[in-house]
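Hello,

Our lab assistant flagged a job as stuck in the queue for most of the afternoon. It eventually completed. Since we weren't sure the result was trustworthy after the delay, we are filing this so someone can double-check. Below is the sequence as submitted and the structure that was eventually returned. Let us know if re-running is recommended.
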Amino acid sequence: MSVQPHLTHVALFVKDAARTVDFYQRFAGLHLVHDRTDNGTRVVWLSETECDPEFVIVAIAAPPGQAGVPPHMAHFGYDVPSRAAVEEMAARAQQEGVLELAPTDAGEIVGYICIVRDPDGNLVEFSHGQPINPKRLK
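-- returned structure --
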């Protein structure tokens, strides 16, 4: 493999973002490092470090999917060093028949991404330009 991806986030769907934040603050000592609303959906980022996180849990306030069915875009998120690396991952996934989303620019918060399915149907995102550290958000 010419590119070594770096795990930056896990995105989960939750029923109530406030309850999720409260739970992870009380039980795991996590910090709320980012909080926004996208098209009426609250999205929060939780991290072990209050400043300069390198890994976050992204909690998306939308009902989880049915048992045994991953909800749309619940995923593992990996950072790669360039847009070309995203395209390389997508090309490899396309060859193996597991490409879910071709490379696309999803804006300043999400960056340039492609989505791949693992053998069990879980989604894996490969991105470049996705600022996990909220200080890098504009």
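-- support follow-up --
The delay was a queue issue, not a problem with the job. The result is valid. DSSP finds two helices and eight strands in the chain. The mean pLDDT is 86.
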